[in-house]
Amino acid sequence: MKSFKLYVLMFMVTTSSVFAQTRLIKIDGSSTVFPITEAVSEEFQTLKKGTVQVTVGISGTGGGFKKFCRGETDIQDASRPISKEEMKTCKDSGIQYIELPIAYDAITLCVSQKNTWLSELSLPELKKIWEPQAQRKIIQWNQVKKEWPETPLKLFGAGSDSGTFDYFTEAVNGKSKASRGDYTASEDDNTLVLGIGQDPNALGYLPFSYYEANKAKLKAIAIINTKNKAILPSLKTIVNGAYEPFSRPIFIYVNVTSLKKSEVKDYVTFYLTQAQTLVPQVKYVPLSPKAYQADLTRLQKNKIGTTFGGEAHIGMKIEDLLLQTH
């Protein structure tokens, strides 16, 4: 009996020691950035052999910044730059941060594969559909364009805490958060995929990677750009800037205080050195090696703050981003 008690005591001491050695990194924010951060976190935890645990939440860019600016998370996933209001909230709370662009995304307009008649949309048509004045008025496809069917217009899009929502509304309606409210909104992009995919009358917008992973259900719609060309989203058109104005940089923000913990510093360094490999694996567009080196320099030099001044910079190309963040 004594030997059994001794074994139990040794097991408890060993177990508590393991838990004590496990360090925690807390991340939250954008569902758009989530697939990249999830992939990085899985690789990092494997590398660290269980000594570091990384939790990754999805509360939307806006919802994540609320937590980040309260000091509740170490890293913030963001599908747009930090806003002026969020900058003030962080400042008031004493939260300093380093801004790191980590990839490029394209907001993708989608219909169901069951939709056989729609292939392209112009920005004026999108504005007619999504502007606040359209609420409960533009409810059928033929109200947008008379040649289109007299069928219900079912809309799906990002929730109001989403950075995708902020960027889309500014690009289409000229003002962030200016949108009709009578549509199915969700911070969970998989919910949008399901809703759009099963309804032939549906139209919605979501991140490029979610479209790429669900091509059997969804059909991407070409957007008529400023050169009057109908352009589909693809790795090529995102990189060369032809898919406008919906190509955009996406970010992580790192709490400067959290960087004093070795596991957070190691994680962010790992993120930036592995992004070139991992970003394409989850169907996003990686930045150039030069851009990731610029990120590492920002991290090493502890360059605090944002270079975007609280604005989204609609239609920014990859080369513009590199100039912006140097």
Task: Report on this structure.
The chain has 326 residues and is an alpha/beta fold. It is built from twelve helices and twelve strands. The protein has helices at 2-21, 34-47, 60-68, 84-93, 123-130, 163-173, 189-197, 208-212, 235-239, 262-281, 289-300, 318-325; strands at 23-29, 52-56, 75-78, 97-112, 120-121, 154-158, 184-186, 202-207, 218-220, 222-224, 230-231, 247-255. Strands 1, 2, 3, 4, 6, 7, 8, 9 and 12 form a nine-stranded mixed β-sheet that branches. It has a three-stranded mixed β-sheet with strand order 5-10-11. Helix 2 (34-47) packs across helix 10 (262-281). The protein starts with a helix and ends with a helix.
- Tell me the strand percentage band: 15-25%
CATH class categorisation of the largest domain:
Alpha Beta
Chain-averaged pLDDT:
91
Helix-residue proportion: 40-55%
> What Rg is obtained from the alpha carbons, in whole angstroms?
22 Å
Low-confidence stretches: 2-20
Distance between the termini: 68 Å
